[in-house]
TrEMBL record:
This is Uncharacterized protein. It comes from Desulfofundulus thermobenzoicus. The lineage of its organism: Bacteria, Bacillati, Bacillota, Clostridia, Eubacteriales.
Length: 172
């Protein structure tokens, strides 16, 4: 299964993974792939300055949920970090996860937890909603690409985000 873009050239699985995650989860503002550390970095944006108490509670709940999920899956997490920064009345929260233990269901869990905590303050790309079968296809692609990225030795640090309804991917 390969991903193609304009010009029909093959796209690496790591690029395809980033594209599929952004297409499937419009709540994810940006996503980075660090091949040296084999880590995905998801950025979510709150449309207001969150208080220290709110951020602490959210980080604690996210970390606990990630740890419990992986414990139930029988996996030992290598990287699970949550950081934040505020700028211009926005709060950006970054979740870092190693691709070795990350699975599609955990990504869905993380997105759902952001919905639960931020509600209407979660910045989400507004675009045409995907049909149920399109969502299932994107989830299958994410699963396939995650498996492929685990076994591949990529060497490009990738950064992906949305702009004007398109997903853009750059290597740093």
């Amino acid at each position: 299964m390969g991903v193609h873009y304009r010009g029909s050239e093959d796209v690496t699985d790591s690029v395809g993974l980033l594209i599929s995650i952004l297409v499937r989860y419009p709540e994810v503002a940006t996503i980075n792939f660090d091949p040296a550390r084999q880590v995905l970095k998801f950025t979510f944006i709150a449309s207001r300055d969150l208080t220290v108490t709110e951020i602490s509670a959210m980080k604690e709940k996210l970390m606990h949920s990630i740890e419990v999920f992986n414990m139930l899956e029988g996996k030992q997490i290598r990287v699970a970090l949550i950081t934040h920064q505020t700028s211009d009345h926005l709060t950006m929260i970054e979740v870092q996860r190693d691709v070795e233990t990350l699975v599609r269901e955990e990504i869905a869990l993380i997105v759902q937890l952001f919905h639960q905590y931020l509600k209407k303050n979660l910045v989400t790309e507004t675009s045409e909603p995907l049909f149920e079968e399109d969502l299932i296809i994107q989830e299958e692609i994410i699963e396939h690409m995650l498996n492929s990225v685990r076994s591949a030795a990529g060497d490009k640090y990738l950064f992906a985000f949305r702009e004007d309804g398109r997903v853009l991917v750059f290597n740093k």
